Amino acid sequence: MNDTYDITGKVALVTGANRGIGKTIVEAFIHGGVSKIYLAVRDVASADALLAQYPEQLVVLEVDIAKQETIFAAAKKANDVDLVVNNAGILLMAMPLDEHVVEALQTQMAVNVNGLLYMAQAFAPVLKSNGGGAFVQLNSIASLRAFPAFSSYAASKAAAYSLTQALREQLAEQGTRVMSVHPGPIATDMAKDAGFGDIAETADTVAKAIIDGLKAGQFHVFPDAMAQEMWVHYQSFARNVVEADSVE
Hints:
The chain is an alpha/beta fold. The protein has helices at residues 20-31, 48-53, 68-77, 101-129, 151-172, 189-193, 204-216, 225-242; strands spanning 11-15, 36-41, 58-62, 83-86, 134-138, 177-181, 220-221.
């Protein structure tokens, strides 16, 4: 499998495409030469502004990442997809001893973890039929380092990262590249709600890193300054253990 992946002329699908990182990825993909993008969003009206801006290149699909049936229905409609970006996710603030922490964890697991599995199960056959393509999962530096205030979110992202590693190996068998993206604080509503608004970087940092990472054949992508600082310390383990060939 050729590790280099050029997005030019490809057909993409982006979940959570109506705002934040997802919207910026859509815009970067269009400027990068992607021919068509499916906007997978819960509320189709929320994508009206993007659709009006790029009417010839965008198609809106109603997808609730926590509902399996909407994801599989979207995969049937978007059967020409080469590149899937699973960006949608939620963050709920909860400390480990909070009364609502288990509920918060279950809700986030349903979206951030189950949603990833549903997306992979639904779109793996589509990607295979279209030559392999690529599957990009938005994880977080929180998948590697938890903090009390959003411990349940970090736990869900750690689970998503673990599954992304397994998907990398399994989907390689059909020629599909997998990427795990680990941003730090990015200037979105989620970062603002988590109290990181003052140090957050712009979302285009993530979009550019995804495009560059696909071209370079990278599995791990740590886009912003805080993420890069963590990568300095983590990369040896990542290269020598996570990305190493499996031992049967």
